């Protein structure tokens, strides 16, 4: 805990600097849009006309039209929204709607986050189970070790997103109406690998002398698995679960992006792109980041609790 | 059901052969180490072919691997154009820019212990985020051509490489740095002769993660707008026009490129970090 406290001030400082850079970047990013809008509103802009302005650098535009720079911070469709705009949009689509009792409306990010969370969790459960079963097979069977392990590594070098639209098509051709299933498969694909690798390491963590001791107790294979290998692998398991859940969320969002999904955080990004509403894209992105943070923190707390209860050093 | 039965028989036979190879007298030899996974992969292809033929699966759902191979051979020109657009222009350029930027940032951050403590948690957090969602924003900012794809790739590969490099730069111990000081080495000399080489295992760790991310970023960004070529473009239009065999050929290219890219980085790693225990 002391260690964590020590980094609070540096983290907050760095975050503050990042937000400051973001605010500074808004002016040059939005100046062209702001000037176009002001010109339509009847203001005189140097040089006149949006086509003429394209040849002039943003720095010149800002210097020549200093009074309009401020307008870039309050656009409806900015190229780069300010942190405050993103925060407001996030609040408008989550907290404010929940207070009005419309948390499950189709316009609420709580609803879309829930859809994404469901697929993520299904993919996480599926991927984790596959990873653990695979790890047990690899630890106990030499054939499985030799034939599965190289393919597990290769599978992660294949960009699964290339497959994402295919998985959706195949499952809809097969008559799977539920859009959650193909997304969960993509999640599981990204999530099983860290669990597999971590569990193989964990199940192999007991030393030979410990395994030998159990042999002198006349323990069966199952007993030594349950009483030695499995408990020894728990810290490794939790570390990989944290990587896995983040990967599962990435998988779900990737599954929602290119596939014409209508609900879910990835779909909000897609729809925001199609309707040209950048604020919707940015708020969905931040909602996804918050969701990732919550999931990892939850697993981290569970890890501390479980490992502490088992009497191991967290 | 004939083809399916045959495929299952072959699969069982190959599995038996694998068990024999893995436990047989040559179990430690290099040939067996390569033959077992290759055999396993081949049997999966045979099983796929058998299931598709035996159960008469529509080609719209899943074409057999033989058909995919034919399409692959027949449309190498299209595949090459897409490869150049997506991999050489988008993914590799973005990867190179992101790599250089991340290493420079890491060296700059490393000079301040305060910054390192502040940035490591944030960088770790960003590395776990679904950054690929910025694809539509980048396409909006940088246009339809490869620049926007490279931009997505830069953002995606930046954080894993940054975090790993910062950690790597801290990998030397006090004894080694003291030794450099007794040689009267200045900051640059210590950096180039001791700390950067010592950081290389970590840097390559980040690079390996980044290889797949680079391809994912370049392909997904094409779903949001691209010139009429590119692997992501071909996949999304191919799914729409039901030319599924071409989509699978494109997926095969993506898989080959992903594996080759990863393998290339691993080979370079082996030559650069030959001194590291994991490479000996």
The quaternary organization reads as heterodimer
**Strand composition percent of chain B:** under 5%
Number of strands of chain A: 0
Q: Terminal Cα separation of chain B, in Å?
A: 50 Å
Shape of chain B: flat
**Helical region count of chain B?**
11
Uncertain runs of chain A: none
SS-based class of chain A = mainly alpha
Helix content of chain A: over 70%
Estimate the global geometry of chain A from the Cα principal axes.
Answer: elongated
| Residues in helix, % of chain B | over 70%
Q: Give the strand content of chain A.
A: under 5%
Topology pattern of chain A, helix = H, strand = E: HHHHHHHHHHHHHH
DSSP strand tally of chain B: 0
Q: Main sheet of chain A?
A: none
Distance between the termini of chain A: 11 Å
- How do the helices and strands follow one another from N- to C-terminus of chain B? HHHHHHHHHHH
Poorly predicted runs of chain B are: none
Secondary-structure blueprint of this entry?
The complex is a heterodimer of chains A (314) and B (280).
Chain A: H1 2-6, H2 8-40, H3 50-53, H4 58-64, H5 83-93, H6 95-99, H7 109-140, H8 142-157, H9 164-173, H10 180-203, H11 208-216, H12 221-256, H13 265-274, H14 278-309
Chain B: H1 2-23, H2 30-54, H3 65-74, H4 76-110, H5 113-127, H6 135-142, H7 146-169, H8 174-182, H9 187-223, H10 231-240, H11 244-272
Helix pairs in contact in B: 1-2, 3-11, 4-7, 4-9, 5-7, 6-7, 6-9, 7-9, 9-10, 9-11, 10-11
Could you explain how this protein is built, in words?
The complex is a heterodimer of chains A (314) and B (280). By secondary structure, chain A is mainly alpha-helical. Chain A is built from 14 helices and no strands. Chain B is mainly alpha-helical. Helix content of chain B is 80%, strand content 0%. Chain B has helices at 2-23, 30-54, 65-74, 76-110, 113-127, 135-142, 146-169, 174-182, 187-223, 231-240, 244-272. In chain B, helix 1 packs antiparallel against helix 2 (30-54) and helix 6 packs across helix 9. Chain B is flat and about 75 Å long. The chains are: A mainly alpha (314), B mainly alpha (280). At the A-B interface, helix 2, helix 8, helix 9, helix 12 and helix 13 of A face helix 1, helix 2, helix 5, helix 6 and helix 9 of B.
């Amino acid at each position: 805990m002391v260690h964590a406290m020590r980094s609070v001030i540096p983290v907050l400082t760095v975050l503050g600097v990042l937000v400051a850079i973001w605010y500074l970047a808004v002016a040059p990013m939005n100046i062209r849009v702001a000037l176009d809008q002001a010109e339509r509103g009847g203001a005189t802009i140097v040089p006149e006309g949006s086509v003429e302005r394209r040849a002039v650098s943003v720095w010149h535009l800002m210097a020549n039209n200093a009074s309009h720079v401020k307008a870039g911070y309050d656009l409806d469709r900015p190229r780069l929204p300010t942190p405050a705009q993103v925060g407001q949009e996030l609040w408008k689509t989550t907290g404010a709607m929940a207070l009005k009792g419309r948390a499950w409306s189709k316009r609420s990010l709580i609803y879309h986050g829930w859809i994404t969370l469901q697929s993520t969790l299904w993919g996480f459960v599926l991927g984790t189970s596959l990873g653990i079963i695979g790890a047990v097979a690899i630890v106990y069977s030499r054939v499985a070790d030799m034939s599965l392990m190289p393919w597990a590594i290769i599978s992660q070098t294949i960009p699964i997103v290339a497959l994402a639209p295919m998985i959706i098509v195949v499952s809809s051709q097969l008559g799977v109406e539920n859009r959650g299933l193909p997304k969960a498969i993509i999640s599981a694909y990204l999530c099983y690998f860290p669990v597999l690798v971590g569990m193989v390491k964990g199940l192999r963590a007991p030393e030979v002398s410990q395994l030998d001791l159990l042999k002198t107790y006349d323990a069966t294979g199952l007993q030594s698995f349950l009483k030695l290998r499995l408990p020894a692998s728990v810290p490794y398991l939790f570390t990989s679960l944290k990587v896995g859940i983040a990967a599962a969320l990435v998988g779900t969002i990737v599954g929602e992006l290119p596939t014409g999904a209508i609900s879910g955080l990835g779909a909000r990004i897609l729809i925001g792109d199609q309707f040209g509403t950048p604020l919707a894209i940015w708020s969905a992105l931040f909602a996804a980041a918050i969701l990732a943070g919550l999931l990892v923190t939850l697993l981290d707390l569970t890890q501390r609790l479980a490992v502490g209860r088992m009497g191991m050093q967290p | 059901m004939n083809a399916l039965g045959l495929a299952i028989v072959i699969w069982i036979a190959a599995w038996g052969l694998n068990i024999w190879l893995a436990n047989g007298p040559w179990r430690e030899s290099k040939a067996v180490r390569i033959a077992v996974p290759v055999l396993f992969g081949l049997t999966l292809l045979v099983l796929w072919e058998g299931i598709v033929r035996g159960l008469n699966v529509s080609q719209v759902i899943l074409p057999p691997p033989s058909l995919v191979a034919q399409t692959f051979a027949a449309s190498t020109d299209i595949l090459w154009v897409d490869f150049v657009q997506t991999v050489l222009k988008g993914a590799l350029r973005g990867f190179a820019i992101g790599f250089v930027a991340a290493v420079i940032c890491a060296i700059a951050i490393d000079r301040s212990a305060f910054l390192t403590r502040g940035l490591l948690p944030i960088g770790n957090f960003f590395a776990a985020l679904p950054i690929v969602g910025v694809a539509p924003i980048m396409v909006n900012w940088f246009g339809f051509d490869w620049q926007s794809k490279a931009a997505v790739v830069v953002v995606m590969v930046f954080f894993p490489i940054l975090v790993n490099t910062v950690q790597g730069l801290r990998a030397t111990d006090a004894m080694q740095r003291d030794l450099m000081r007794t040689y009267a080495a200045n900051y640059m000399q210590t950096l180039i002769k001791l700390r950067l080489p010592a950081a290389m295992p970590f840097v390559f760790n980040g690079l390996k993660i980044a290889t797949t991310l680079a391809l994912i970023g370049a392909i997904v960004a094409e779903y949001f707008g691209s010139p009429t070529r590119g692997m992501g473009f071909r996949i999304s239009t191919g799914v729409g026009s039901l030319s599924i065999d071409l989509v699978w050929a494109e997926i095969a290219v993506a898989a080959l490129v992903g594996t080759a890219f990863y393998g290339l980085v691993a080979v370079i790693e082996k030559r650069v970090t030959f001194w590291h225990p994991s490479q000996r």
